[in-house]
Amino acid sequence: MKLLQEAIEQRGTIINDDILKVDSFLNHQIDCDLMEKIGAEFADYFKDRGITKIVTIESSGIAPAVFAGLKMKLPVIFLKKSEPSTMQDPVYTEAFSFTKNRKYTLCMERSCLNPDDVILFIDDFLANGQAFLSAENLVQQCHARIEGIGIVIEKSFQQGRKLIEEKGYDICSLARIQAMKEQTILWAE
Ligand code: 5GP
Fold first, then answer.
1. pLDDT digits (tens, 9 = 90+) for 4-49
2. Which atom of ligand 1 is nearest to the CA of 130?
């Protein structure tokens, strides 16, 4: 997605060879105009696939997921990183944070998903695929099915895409980074 690549090049900061900061439009301040277009791209790619719900992880997956949900007229469920006292029948899984380099627990109210739900998982970044694996675990605990994965920024030099493709899922990444060196980004496609 050309507009997203331009935003990354012009407004992103390469922290090191592995981590990109995009707080100016995705991870802190949200560019709603760009996010609307991102939502529309996901909606177009995953149309006519029988998707019934979108699942994401708080907090940075919420913006792209909600804009996709608006376009697809679907509800969005965000997996929570801490369990609120109001949760009645949660399902849990362990997750590993790429940016924080530590484990955490993800949870969701079991009744959010039914066995006949068909899920589109959306996230801000794909690195090694650990966030996806945790979401997959929770979806499977509810016996729902994942139909596809939508990623805003994929770092193709890490292991996530390979892991997801080996599991047979369809993945749509709107920007694919092959390498990051100093302040230069090499695109995968
Ligand atoms: P994974 O679980 O695929 O290894 O990492 C994906 C998660 O880690 C995303 O949900 C995202 O929050 C975070 N993440 C991974 N790489 C980056 C990065 O380069 N920049 C930022 N801001 N977050 C990242």
1. 999 999 999 999 999 999 999 999 999 999 999 999 999 999 999 9
2. 2
What's the CA gap between 27 and 104, in Å, rounded? 19
* Residue pair 146/129 in contact by the 8 Å Cβ criterion: no
Three-point CA angle 8, 9, 12, nearest 5°: 55
State in Å: Cα 126 to ligand 1 middle. Answer: 6
3-state percent breakdown (helix, strand, coil) of the chain, nearest 5: 35, 35, 30
134 contacts: CB under 8 Å, gap ≥ 6:
57, 79, 93, 94, 95, 96, 106
Residue count of the chain, please give it: 189
Cα of 61 from ligand 1 centre, angstroms:
10
* Cα 131 to ligand 1 centroid, rounded to whole Å: 8
